Amino acid sequence: MTENLQSCCLANWKMEMELDPAKDDLPLMANTRHMLVKHYVLDLDVDFKSQVIEGTIVLFFEPGSRCKKGGSAGEGACLSQSDETCKIRASEPCHSPVTNVSARSSKTGYNDFAVCAKGEKDTSDKNGNHSNGEQASGISSSKNCCDIENHGSEDFLLVLDCCDLSVLKVEEVDVAAVPGIEKFTRSAKLTDAEELRNLRNQIVHELVTLPADRWREQLYYYTRCSQAPGCGELLFSTGTWSLMIRKAEVQAPRDFPHAIRIWYKTKPEGRSVTWTTDQSSRPCVYTMGSPINNRALFPCQEPPVAMSTWQTTVRTASCFVVLMSGENSAEPAQLQEGLLSWYYYVTMPMPASTFTIAIGCWTEVKQESHTADVRTNNEFSSLFSRADLRLIEGSCGHVAYPCRFQNPAASSQLVIPHRVFAPWCLKDRCAEILLELIPQCLSAAHATLGTHPFSRLDVLIVPSNFSSLGMASPHIIFLSQSVLTGGSHLCGTRLCHEIAHAWFGLAIGARDWTEEWISEGFATYLEDVFWAVAQQLPHDEAREQQELKALLRWRRLRDEVQNSEEELQVLRPNKENTGEVSESGTCIIKHGLNAEKIFMQVHYLKGYFLLQSLAKRIGEATYFEFLRKFVQKFHGQLILSQDFLYMLLEDIPEQKGYGLSVENIIRAWLDTSGIPKPLLEECQTWDQCRLVRQVNDEVTKWIQVNQRARKRSKRKRRQDEVAFQKLLPDQLVLLLESLLEEKTLCLRTLQCLEKTYHLDEQDSEVRHRWCELVVKHKYTTRYADIEKFLKEDQAMGVYLYGELMVNEDAKQQELAYKCFAATQKQMDVSSAKVVAEMLF
Ligand SMILES: [Zn+2]
Q1: Cα 632 to averaged position of ligand 1 atoms, centre (Å)
Q2: Does residue 690 come out as left (phi exceeding 0), alpha (psi in the -120 to 50 range) or beta?
Q3: Cβ contacts of residue 414 below 8 Å, gap of 6+?
Q4: pLDDT-derived band of residue 601, with 50, 70 and 90 as boundaries?
Q5: Which of 16, 302, 498, 698 is catalytic?
Q6: How far is the CA of 628 from the centre of ligand 1 (A)?
Q7: pLDDT (tens digit per residue) in 69-115
Q8: Which of 194, 340, 431, 772 would suit a FRET pair with 833, their CA atoms being 20 to 30 Å apart?
Q9: What whole-number distance in Å separates Cα of residue 454 and Cα of residue 734?
Q10: 129 pLDDT exceeds 90?
């Protein structure tokens, strides 16, 4: 076993050495199969002046699945707690992903190894303000890899994912020193050092395995243990992607300290959080859904198998509101004049990547009068069959936690408690558009899928540099200000999309991050379903709207497939190796850092079309009944594509006869680039839908208007009155896209178009197409619309920059440079990179 461990450690850092920083793959370095984090306690100070978050994190571990053969202490733990990890094809040969990476052996410069030998320095004061930061960041001693072996090749190396952090100190926590902790120890007699070490690990084991109904007690002792004194510094070093920790002469994970404390600081340029100003020009900081997730916010185990709980205390100036992934809606406590402390926790284990924080001078938006239309239970009860209600009583498949699916009161809760936060200047618009949509969308989601996996929800309007329209995390949804324009359509659909992620993406996660279609495909598919229920649309109308949406998405997919790298169009890039990790638990996320990929929607779209096609085949009623069963079975767990497909086809056996098989679906939809063949057959039908035909009629009218206007422009005559139909926002999008295909539209047509539909007041999807028309036809008087769009709708503006550059028109390029100069500094890093490539 030692041999294995050692080779894993070597492989691990070989991975660091060989990764080409210019390549777009994202490594997950943590050796989760040796040690698995169960709980994080974060204790942080947030300073806006220096743009630094500083504090400690205490990690509580269990030995991972690979230590099963090990000795007595961790044995039970491995068997009971690490089932999750064992499922990952433990029996199959592990191909180390290192072999997939082009070998670049001489790349030594960026793995600065700075082991702080124990006892070498002892300048730490009692408050833990240790100042060996220069060592941690590798300035003082820069040794190469051989040092690992020199320092004792037999030692076990704990590897955490970590990037852009200054690690100041790492130490073992003396959990045995916590008063009252004796009850967690079976034998309280301590004689020698070895036994004391075992005792500490035994305490942590008892603590992390407490039954779910003792979660309060567990949280209490996590807090107490996190505050316990240290009992010995640990050796550590940082690499580009990781923090490596060892304890001299400890060779097996079961003997490695199970509770460790890390003192660290974030860096202002770290890529996990964005320091910026909100729309009211006040400072704020938030996690922006970076491809590197949270590893520049705290050292963690990133691989999704490391599902853990967390609790976080944040101290910051009293003008700020701290929002976070926490199941309690925290009330701040005043520590001293001008300083508040906020405390959040979760009891449902989730991947560390889902942790989200947003701190700013947010204002809570409240309803003026309580007239919110919250539906009653009866209204939606018809959507639930009796069988579903019985299912609720069944037990869950995940590790034990206080699960809402087992709680009848939680299961029947249509709308969970929710709050809305926004910068001051957007307060009124939120009250007008967003506030009443939330209960409608939440109850629509409940009507479709049942129990809300999370107990509460905060919705925050994030700063204008947020790079997408929305992001879902446990207990908190970020929405872009772009959804607050136009009517409620865009806001409602986006909200539905993010709410759907509570089930697909959060409660049910992708075991292999490259299979992001599982969360995005489902959320895109369910967004239509939820939105139709939320609007209380009759069945036919809902179907019509969904067909229109399908056509729009089909057009987008077709464009994207034509204009992107084939490799990026595959939904399951790891094919049959999907979900595999190395012996130590590391893996590489292909194209995880690809800037272009961030702007692609192929995973959303192909995933959506697959789910839609299955629904059509199976019939909606049966399909939704199945989805509810699927959620019931897999919530709280991680899945691969095949988990979904196998269960679906098992559940509906008669469909197999129609040629549906897991293998066929995988081949046609998941493992190939381009448009899936079955979709090519389906796409014909959407053209015939009523809402699309209506748009086509209007397009014809506009083309006629344009022809007449061109003739008339020579001899001025009064304009004929043409009666245009009122169109839905999605219809407007299709209309403008169709008109974009026209070679020439004269000025008068554009003017008339704008006036007819009040285009400058429409939602950002519509305005985006309008801006494209303005660019295409060099409609200079409306360039202000483009400027406004590029500043206020940054999540959608990237493509427009390209359009401005492609015409090689001096005025348009000038406009692009001007807008980029004005927004570049606060723009999201990936977006800025892509735009810069277009412009320079
Ligand atoms: Zn459950």
Answers
A1: 7
A2: alpha
A3: 374, 375, 377, 380, 442, 443, 446, 447
A4: confident
A5: 498
A6: 13
A7: 443 333 333 333 333 333 322 222 223 333 222 322 323 222 323 33
A8: 772
A9: 36
A10: no
Task: Name the range with the highest mean pLDDT among 128-132, 410-414, 560-564.
Answer: 410-414
356 neighbors 473 (Cβ within 8 angstroms): yes
pLDDT score for 369: 58
Query: Contact, 243 vs 235, CB < 8 A?
Result: no
Read off the pTM: 0.85
Question: What is the whole-number distance in angstroms between the Cα of residue 635 and the centre of ligand 1?
Answer: 6
Average of per-residue pLDDT across 302-318: 94
Ligand 1 centroid to Cα of residue 412, in Å, is 15
pLDDT in tens, 243-299: 999 999 898 999 999 999 999 999 998 989 999 999 999 999 999 877 788 999 999
Question: 126: number of CA atoms within 13 Å, CB side?
Answer: 0
- Mean pLDDT of the 419-442 span: 96
Residue 287 in contact with residue 471, Cβ under 8 Å? no
Cα-based distances in Å from 488 to 23, 491, 523, 767, 794: 41, 5, 19, 15, 20
CA angle 503, 509, 511 (to 5 degrees): 160
Give the separation between CA 392 and CA 399, rounded to whole angstroms: 17
**Dist. CA 518–CA 640, nearest whole Å:** 8
Whole-number Å distance, alpha carbon 404 to ligand 1 midpoint, is: 6
**Are the C-beta atoms of residues 544 and 690 closer than 8 Å to each other?**
yes
Contact (CB, 8 A) for 471 and 431: no
Q: What is the H or E stretch that residue 275 is in? A: strand 273-277
Of 78-92, 217-231, 521-535, 760-774, where does mean pLDDT reach its minimum?
Answer: 78-92
Helices 794-806, 783-792: inter-axial angle, 10-degree rounding: 140
| Residue range 643-655: mean pLDDT, rounded | 82
CA distance 359 to 348: 23
Distance in Å, CA 390 to ligand 1 centroid:
14
Enter the DSSP assignment of 406.
G
The rounded Å distance from CA 398 to ligand 1 centre is 6
DSSP state of 7: H
Please give the helix or strand (H or E) that residue 803 lies within, else none. Answer: helix 794-806
C-alpha 646 – ligand 1 centre gap (Å): 21
Strand order in the sheet with 235-238: 157-161, 242-246, 235-238
Instruction: Report d(CA 170, CA 233) in Å as an integer.
Output: 6
What pLDDT is attached to residue 354?
Answer: 94
Distance 503 CA to ligand 1 centre (A): 12
**What is the per-residue pLDDT for 717?**
53
Residue 651 amino acid letter: D
Q: Write the burial class of residue 71 (CB in 10 Å: 0-12 exposed, 13-18 middle, 19+ buried).
A: exposed
Smallest CA-to-CA distance from 160 within 170, 152, 151, 150 is with 170
3-state secondary structure of 805: helix
Specify whether 393 is catalytic.
Answer: no
Tell me the average pLDDT of the chain: 82
Helix, strand, coil percentages in the chain from 3-state DSSP, rounded to 5: 45, 15, 40
Token output for 252: 């097996």
